[in-house]
Known about the structure:
binds flavin-adenine dinucleotide, alpha+beta, single chain, Uridine Diphospho-n-acetylenolpyruvylglucosamine Reductase, domain 2, Uridine Diphospho-n-acetylenolpyruvylglucosamine Reductase, domain 3, 3 domains, five-stranded antiparallel β-sheet, Vanillyl-alcohol Oxidase, Chain A, domain 3, 533 residues, 21 strands, ten-stranded mixed β-sheet
Amino acid sequence: MTRALSGRAHDAPPGFPRALPVRRRPYRNWVDRIHVDDVWTCSPRTAEDVVALANWAWSHGYRVRAAGEGHSVGPLVLTDRQPDAQRVVLADTRDHLDHVQVLPGEAPLVRVGPGASVRSLLEHLARHGLALPCTTGCGEFTVGGALAVGGHGTGAAAPAHGTMSDLVVALDAVVWDAASGRYAVRGFRRGDPDTAALLTHVGRAFVTEVTLAAVADHTLRCASDTTALSGEVFAAPEAAAPRSVAALVERCGAVDVLWFPYSERTWLRTFEPAPVRPPTSRAVTGPYNYPFTDHIPEAVSRVVSRVVGEHPRYALGLGEAQHAASVAGLAATASADLWGRSKDLLLYSRPNVLRYAWSGHAIVTCRAELQRVVHDFAVRYRELRDGYRDRERYPANGPVELRVTGVDHAGGPTLSPVAADPDHPHWDVAVWVSVLGFPGTGHAESFHRDLERFAFDHYRPPYAVVRPEWAKGWGYTTSAGWADAAVLGGAVPAAFGASWNRVVTRLDALDPHRVFGNPFLDRLLVAGSGGRT
Ligand SMILES: Cc1cc2nc3c(=O)[nH]c(=O)nc-3n(C[C@H](O)[C@H](O)[C@H](O)COP(=O)(O)OP(=O)(O)OC[C@H]3O[C@@H](n4cnc5c(N)ncnc54)[C@H](O)[C@@H]3O)c2cc1C
């Protein structure tokens, strides 16, 4: 979502809070798949402004959408060309709700406004000798946006963490107050019955401040390896080798795997604690140390996308080319072996990467099954990729990205993709898989649908469970994402077990007038559809 767009200031919806400037603006998300030509947009300065906005919206039949950077791929802020968008007000949190403050006290805590970027939060912490124990790989979106969806990075070393949402110890949200019959700001602490619903709410709430648990800053080493083939990385457990995913996680703790399209080549990045700079590592002092991947102007991304769209077979050469470019880029920038503060290594992907539409799923399992989970995925992915190719269809024109984290704590964010499951306390790791592709690629939805159906059918308890990565693509029909009724109303609620109904009911109670929602969330977050099949 761009900030610098012009807008008209001379009108406002009827009865709109006078103290809050509001303009009509176009909205489009990062991947350019969600467009709304004209939507009322304001920038609340305080939580009280959000309260005034919510009460106005409730009494005038409008809805409010908290908006960050618009980096979510799917319809979480607005739906594409949302029919009732004229009765929506976007509340852009980035302009004013962006404070960051380290709290005094024994335990390192940081209080942050939802509009602060993840990067600015990490930079502020670093100035105080602190860090987060887990963070997203890109820091250019808002804390509120990352928490809403259960933002994650990579890393499963003990004590393993799942999502950033699980780091929240307290939060303020604007919720319905039955006693006064109005919306009001309320504070929630970990352990309060409603808090677990608000830690990851997919956009069904408005959070105005959070307090996160931090840790002492530490240094990491990130080593790249571009020589491993997918056969080794995703080997069957009985054939696993030192560069198989489970072995890398065991040895280093954190791994990011890129598997290039129509190729068996990979780029492995491992992250491990290194208090002292290893002699072969280059010290870095800032984030995003792979400039050859993330300095791609949007126009270039569009051209590549269009060329591959018009000549789908070109996708067959993309993987080898991307691999060669990565090898050359790592050498040219001396980035194959880096050492530095945690934020400078864990933030490694800027938004100016190629603008792919990403699918996203988390497969929650136990450590002993980790290699089998990734092997099964790779086997099916390869079968589908090659089967489509044999029919001269080339939907898989971007890499597969795979990361591994722990799961969230019991009692943590209920709607987190890696929420703990009381029926399966042995599940302690999660494989996050994204399949990337240029937006609009022919047969992409079909391909994603086949892969997603496999995942929901194959990864079943007690082996594993699959949940959607909310901000990415999922719920595929043969022509669209976020659309399959069986996934939205069946597979997804079932993946959360009995807690689905509880959490949806809690979110409804906190916002009974559905001020904070949109047509997609109305369809998704329905009580009564939960429970395991
Ligand atoms: C290049 C790139 C890299 C990415 N890397 C990662 C990654 O490493 N790990 C990961 O987990 N994800 C990653 N993502 C996805 C990203 O975390 C999510 O899309 C996130 O939601 C983006 O935040 P945003 O500020 O853009 O939120 P938006 O897209 O603007 O909003 C997303 C949702 O959050 C809600 N929201 C925002 N603020 C608030 C608030 N104050 N209160 C309540 N709800 C709120 C919105 O209403 C909406 O439902 C990446 C995305 C891109 C484009």
